[in-house]
Amino acid sequence: MNITLSPTTNTTHIDHKKINATSKEIKTFYDEATEDYTFWSQDFNMHFGYFSFGKTNLFLRDTMLNEMNSQVLKRLELSSSKQLVADLGCGMGGTMRHFLHRHSLLCMIGVTLSDFQVAEGNKLLKKYPAVIVKEDFRNTSIETNSVDGAIAIESFCHTGHNIKTLKEAHRILKPSKRLIIGDAFLKKSPDQLCFGSSYSYKKLCEKWSLEGLGVIQEVEENLKKIGFSKVSVEDISPRVAPSVFHVPFAIPLFLLKKILKREPIKKQSWDNLKASFYALTSGLHMKDFGYYLITAEK
């Protein structure tokens, strides 16, 4: 199993068709906002959760966030032998650590543009056969046909789930291996959204430095077009909703904590908090937005 790792050097305009987020803006967002996620998740899970009766607690957010990790891991269908998995947009490596706890022969590589996440995430991964590198997941140094699985949990949205991003994931996967995407998607094109949905969508993309959400039908078609032989799309919005509804409670508590400690609130922290609110308002427009798990087999 070979993999070549070579770290590379790397005013949001909004319209109805595309939100342009540069690599610099995405990097700045995560460099400055990552520490805020400790309030969202003690395990550094930088995503929403998956509610499962008997496994998760509605009032304990990390149980749902970690269950999302478990659901993604299950869909990879990894063998019990030595495996290599790539986390494309890995954050602080929360999902990576969850996987590594549960698969004794697993090795992982995480990709992020954030210097902060590379430095701090690798500290948390010291005891594991894993590494986080500073690379763009649209153009990695991972060898072709080299990984036994690839995941992207709420990361490909930063590139609008575009076809270049999907092609790179296809390139690095071994034949018959799987890509799992967990993310929010549009159910129709941006110019067909109602006024409320359109406003929430624009603000969500602006504050979270997203290039835009992919339209689920188009993303499914693109995955098939680039060579994935089997594509399964699951709408898990009802499972994700309980963790999304933590947002209106988490935001005031976060602000109160900052105020009591007399800590300044950075602009990016404000943007992060506002984006979380717009994620909630977007989720209420169920005819326009959905949260999906996509399984694509090469």
Number of helices: 11
Mean pLDDT score, rounded? 87
Which ranges are low-confidence, i.e. pLDDT below 50, for 5 or more consecutive residues? 1-20
Radius of gyration, CA atoms, in whole angstroms:
18 Å
Structural class: alpha/beta
Biggest beta-sheet profile: 7 strands, mixed
CATH-defined fold name = Rossmann fold
- Spatial shape: globular
Query: How many structural domains does the protein architecture include?
Result: 1
Please bin the fraction of helical residues: 40-55%
Which CATH-level-2 architecture?
A: 3-Layer(aba) Sandwich
* Strand order in space, largest sheet: 3-2-1-4-5-7-6
Assess the beta-strand content as a share of residues.
15-25%
CATH superfamily: Vaccinia Virus protein VP39
Count of strand segments:
7
* Distance separating the two termini: 18 Å
For this structure, what is the CATH class?
Answer: Alpha Beta
Following the backbone from N to C, one meets helices and strands in this order, namely HHHEHEHEEHEHHEHHHE
Walk me through this protein's architecture.
The protein has 298 residues and is α/β, with parallel strands linked by helices. It has one domain: Vaccinia Virus protein VP39 (Rossmann fold). It is globular. Mean pLDDT is 87; it is low at 1-20. A seven-stranded mixed beta sheet has the order 3-2-1-4-5-7-6, sandwiched between helices. The longest helix is centred in the C-terminal third of the chain and has 17 residues, at 267-283. It is built from eleven helices and seven strands.
